[in-house]
Amino acid sequence: MVIVMEAGASAGQLSVVLDRVTASGFRPHVNDGVERKVIAVLGEVDIDKVELLEQFENLPGVERVNLISAPFKLSSRQYQPEDRIVDVGGVLIGGHQVVIMAGPCSVESEIQIHGAAQAVKEAGARILRGGAFKPRSSPHSFQGLGEPGLKLLAEAGAATGLPVVTEVMDAHDVELICRHAQMLQIGARNMQNFTLLRAVGQSKRPVLLKRGPGCRIKDLLMAAEYVLCEGNDQVVLCERGITTFEDAARNTTDINAVPILKELSHLPVVLDPSHSTGEWRWVTPIARAAIAAGADGLIIEVHPNPQAARSDGRQSLKPARFTELVVQARAIAGAVGRTL
Ligand code: PEP
Ligand code: MN
């Protein structure tokens, strides 16, 4: 349930409503909103919400009360009708401008990450990606450089003026990673690691939340809910391909997810065509499709020498191909009334 206050409602009226919500056994969560405050009524209390709705509706300063039937509340458009803008070290995601994040799958060496950072910056990327803690299907594969990798990533970001996004796999590492990165990535495999979601929520750092390959759109929004209810509204949703019966590509890009998520939620939506296709040749066409479908951004794997990459080389673009992707993405952004 959400309680929408009148545009001119006073602080006193708001506090009466909040007290009444608490007295009914629920937790109020206030969205300050641009025009009017909206209060989400959260909790597990099993009572007749319709009766409660009438009580709240009659309080002074209340414009209307809506029942939200979906299980996701704080991530829903009913709670916040306006698009959420997420600020990653000064780069705004979710506004008019489409944002491209790019860089290697893994940070491998100083030369590699600095070369990649320089190349993606020159091509037009605005956020640098790179994994230091890598979730690999096999324990025998390269697991990432860990803390030294984080430091190299942060240095490359600082040298190019790009904020950085990197994956956090364990709640115990959140503090460490916050010291080096402007945005925390929750990888697809950890989308439903609820302890981790709460920890990144408490950090208040912007979060890039990737959809699990076997998870539905509503599961992704429930995962976002975990971060939001810790008081962190800086969440970007990422479609990165799902598992289907189709095995011609590494994953299947669920392009539907872009307009569906934009309709259901106020959170920005980006697409990762590198992981959703698994093959560099298909990355640019799917990147174009994502922007045409209304994505607020892209995250792309770029490596100075993909043949030598220690992870995901097959789906990584060489810098020159990435430059071409940005040119094409900019044209599509213009065609749908946005900038890049
Ligand atoms: C990655 O970004 O390199 C990664 C491991 O992504 P995902 O969690 O989507 O597989
Ligand atoms: Mn990768």
Give a written overview of the molecule.
This protein has about 350 residues and is an alpha/beta fold. The chain is built from eleven helices and 14 strands. It has helices at about 10-25, 50-55, 110-125, 145-160, 175-180, 195-205, 215-230, 255-265, 275, 280-290, 320-335, and strands spanning about 1-5, 25-30, 40, 60-65, 85-90, 90-95, 100-105, 125-130, 165, 185, 205-210, 235-240, 270, 295-300. The structure holds phosphoenolpyruvate and manganese (II) ion (MN).
Would you spell out the secondary-structure blueprint of this structure?
Elements lengths: L1 E4 L5 H13 L3 E5 L6 E5 L6 H9 L4 E5 L19 E3 L2 E3 L5 E5 L6 H14 L3 E3 L17 H14 L3 E4 L6 H7 L2 E4 L7 H10 L3 E4 L6 H12 L6 E5 L17 H8 L4 E3 L1 H5 L2 H13 L4 E5 L17 H17 L5
Parallel strand pairs: 7-8, 7-14, 8-9, 9-10, 10-11, 11-12, 12-13, 13-14
Antiparallel strand pairs: 1-3, 1-4, 2-3, 5-6
The chain binds phosphoenolpyruvate and manganese (II) ion.
Manganese (II) ion binds next to loops.
Brief overview:
With 340 residues, this protein is an alpha/beta fold. It is 36% helix and 17% strand. The protein has 11 helices and 14 strands.
Shape: elongated
Mean of all residue-level pLDDT scores:
96
Largest sheet entry: 8 strands, parallel, barrel
- Number of DSSP strands? 14
Bound molecules: phosphoenolpyruvate, manganese (II) ion
Query: What is the H/E order?
Result: EHEEHEEEEHEHEHEHEHEHEHHEH
| Largest sheet: spatial strand order | 7-8-9-10-11-12-13-14
Strand content is: 15-25%
Class by helix and strand content?
alpha/beta
- Summarize the amount of helix as a percent range: 25-40%
| Termini separation | 37 Å
Which regions are unreliable across 5 or more consecutive residues at pLDDT < 50? none
